[in-house]
């Protein structure tokens, strides 16, 4: 006990050993605590006690093992441009300052080597609809119905950026919202309503005022043509054949002028169409039966598939031919009966504003198996029959011209003189009067040139020069000559409907296509391509439930899109447009039993506003952006598309970025989808729906 009292115990080696053991235990305890909370620490924090009243001054010691492993992506993801918060509660890391260099580093730790650094997998591709992340076609989403809600307070503010992510491809084009046009432009057709140009015409006695007179591009207002007040979603086909909403075409002139001829009548909030016409007041069906009985070889729906109705009124002739598998293009000028074509289109019947005047119509030679004129108010014999020569160009070899007019059946001297002139003119064209019965006369065009070549020298009208192209029609004047028929019978050797839809026609060989394969193989390949696409649209977008009726294919090619719509039993008609700067495939389209027109999309289209339920454009903007302002094309699309109608645009991603922004600036609803080529393909699909806009 004496030794202990004198402090000898403190000098013993045993005390040294116990002290060393305690120090080591405490050191390993604290080290273990820092390395045992679920993840590898890189830094060690220390902090002064705030209870002393001094401001907190955090410091940090950095481990030499910091380079062994780190969750770099998670650290990067938390970096923002905003300043750090003033105080962050635990357990989130707090802002730190680097320690002063005088602090000694902690002793090195002997740890097992860390696992190799594993980068996180890339995010899944962002898809929008047609294909899933595995490149498989998907249909597990719904397409919404048209939202009839109106967009209020539509102004001219700057549109918000709408492109996103990978689709933006760099800088985003900003487009200001387009204003609404004045109410006076509700029926505006730019190239037919150019009053300034019409006033400058030298003469209008041959109908020049009804032809295209397009204003300068810069003078066409960049605005959205408004719909009439109380406009409603159209009545679906086939009900629309017999009735349409009054407020959609609020014009009563035809009711006042033609109500007694069973053209049209008003019943409360609707216009109704009894199916009559000036020469068939008892109904179009009885009239068609009479024609079929007069000339059985006309054979509606088999031999006769494509017809032209001139001076069509409200298009009841064409409307009732649809049930007989005949597609009739109904045409009339924008004259005193100015809304007859608008009524036809509202009914869901193929129609265009066009006039027999001084230029060729925008259709190819040998396009129609039947051309019909019932009191169409055209003097066919004027100017040595130049207008009937245009009919002859349009009529297929062996086709029929049906004329129902007063000179056929009335016996007044002046009318009999008109009939004699018509007989002489048709005889000089080598037409054969097949049947004259009641108030209808039907002629047939010859099958070849033999009759023309057997005429006496100097016979009038002459044959056109051999270098005349009867299919060249864009701003081409009428010619007072007979268009030659091909010596090899091309144009007349077509099969009957419906087999002709998928039979490569002879005129396909004359189309100058930019391709390395034979035309027939390309024809079949295009048909298969569009069939596959339309099948996917039906499956994914439910096209068969969207009640499309009037459809415009803005770049038709060989007509594969329109043929696929028929094959997939979508109850609509398609007007195929062949751009003027591409190979003229119109003859092929008509030989297939389809209808179409040539057009330059750098100019407005000859139709009324709110005409079409669906606009389809495949590769159009990539081609036209080199020639004209695509904003003008989009505004024209908005003009001719119904509120609630759709536009499907397939094009390159770069072009669609611009189109996307323009569509948003027009108030359209827009979605971007992948093609069947997958999410990383160079082409996308822009699906748009036009909304109803009110000021």
Radius of gyration, whole Å: 38 Å
**Helical stretch count?**
18
Pairing-aware structural class of the strands and helices? Answer: alpha/beta
Proportion in helices: 10-25%
Q: Give the integer mean of the pLDDT values.
A: 83
Low-confidence stretches: 1-10, 36-104, 107-111, 115-119, 122-133, 135-146, 156-170
How many strands? 19
How can the largest sheet be summarized? 7 strands, mixed
**First and last CA, distance:** 108 Å
Give an overview in words.
The chain has 695 residues and is an alpha/beta fold. 24% of the residues lie in helices and 15% in strands. The chain is built from 18 helices and 19 strands. The protein has helices at residues 2-5, 13-34, 72-77, 195-199, 253-258, 284-294, 316-321, 340-347, 382-394, 406-409, 413-428, 450-453, 519-540, 560-567, 586-591, 620-624, 630-640, 653-665, and strands spanning 43-46, 59-62, 243-245, 265-267, 270-272, 306-310, 327-332, 351-353, 368-374, 395-404, 432-437, 440-444, 550-553, 573-579, 595-599, 612-618, 641-652, 669-674, 683-689. It has a 7-stranded mixed sheet, with helices on both faces. The protein has a 7-stranded mixed sheet with strand order 15-14-13-16-17-19-18, sandwiched between helices. Helix 13 packs across helix 14 (560-567). The radius of gyration is 38 Å and the shape is elongated. The N and C termini lie far apart (108 Å).
